[in-house]
Design goal:
This protein has 312 residues and is an alpha/beta fold. It has twelve helices and eight strands. Strands 1-2-3-4-5-6-7-8 form an eight-stranded parallel beta barrel, surrounded by six helices. Helix 10 packs antiparallel against helix 12. The N and C termini lie far apart (44 Å).
Length: 312
């Protein structure tokens, strides 16, 4: 298996993986100027890649036309400094359409999210992702979560599929992931990428690293890139003291606050972006805004997180 250019760039990351929020204006329409600023600031802050219009970016709420415009804007903002990976999802026909729109917009790869609504068997899931991978020349990362859960044998087949370069886990079953990593390592020669895709992945990344999964998504990077970057560097250098200080003082309280509302994995992150001075607008329905009290708690927590960076 010859690594794709995207796989080669992601295999040795230079920083956290950035999943920007999608900016909406006061009238609810996409605000490409604010979005461009958000993406550019993330790249300037040391992101290793931009994952545009994925879960944190409210892929589910975007029309195809908005999606293509946002991906194109992200590509322009990144300006070749880091790769841009775009989301693709829904049923097979729509996932293929989004994949082709992403390719036309200049994306470097795809994050293929679960099919819409249905709970499919392994054979159907494999057929779905093979069709998405065959639809464009873009390399594909398959996202395991919710109604798309794979056996180790199926991930071996994905790893053998032309165009599929990686597997992102949003399920959190470490026993299953260990068996998947072992099966692919045994059966498929060459490099295959794995990602921790749980919400606030920093909270579980020490465990994922123990089974050989070093890549992870960082929603916190959207609104507190210095905190996310400090945690990333602590993992990279083996600085357990800093990692534990940030986990205990910032990430665990953030996860506990996130658990106070449905959809807060997106809505709370977007509130954080606004608190940090960039008006990215509100989330679109069916998500809802955090309560005023929760936003106040978030503001205090962000302040505490930055204070922790000084406690060395």
């Amino acid at each position: 298996m010859t690594p794709s250019p995207l796989a080669a760039r992601l295999s040795i990351p230079s920083g956290p993986l950035f999943f920007p929020v999608t900016a909406f204006g006061p009238d609810g329409s996409v605000d490409l100027d604010v979005y461009r600023t958000h993406v550019r600031r993330g790249v300037d802050a040391g992101a290793a890649a931009v994952f545009a219009c994925c879960g944190t970016g409210e892929f589910h709420a975007l029309t195809p036309e908005e999606f293509e415009a946002c991906v194109r804007t992200a590509v322009q903002a990144a300006d070749g400094r880091v790769p841009v990976v775009a989301g693709a999802g829904y049923g097979t026909a729509l996932a293929v359409r989004y994949a082709r729109l992403a390719e036309a917009a200049g994306a470097d790869g795809l994050l293929a999210m679960p099919p819409y609504l249905v709970v499919a068997g392994q054979e159907g899931l494999l057929r779905h992702y093979r069709e998405v991978a065959a639809a464009t020349a873009l390399p594909v990362i398959v996202y395991q979560r919710d109604n798309a859960v794979f056996t180790p044998e199926s991930v071996v087949e994905l790893a053998r599929t032309d165009g599929v370069i990686g597997f992102k886990d949003g399920l959190g079953d470490l026993d299953l992931m260990q068996r998947i990593v072992s099966a692919v390592r045994t059966e498929v020669p060459g490099e295959f990428l794995y990602f921790n895709g749980l919400p606030t992945a920093e909270q579980t990344q020490l465990s994922y690293r123990a089974i050989g999964i070093g890549l992870y998504s960082s929603a916190v990077f959207c609104f507190a890139p210095e905190i996310a970057r400090a945690f990333y560097e602590a993992l990279r250098t083996g600085d357990a003291t800093t990692a534990h200080r940030l986990l205990d003082g910032f990430y665990r309280p953030f996860v506990e606050l996130r658990a106070q509302g449905r959809g807060y994995a997106v809505a709370l992150v977007k509130a954080g972006v606004r608190l940090r001075g960039l008006d990215a607008g509100e989330v679109r329905p069916p998500l809802h805004e955090p309560t005023e009290d929760h936003v106040k708690q978030l503001a205090a927590l962000i302040e505490r997180g930055y204070a922790l960076l000084e406690d060395k």
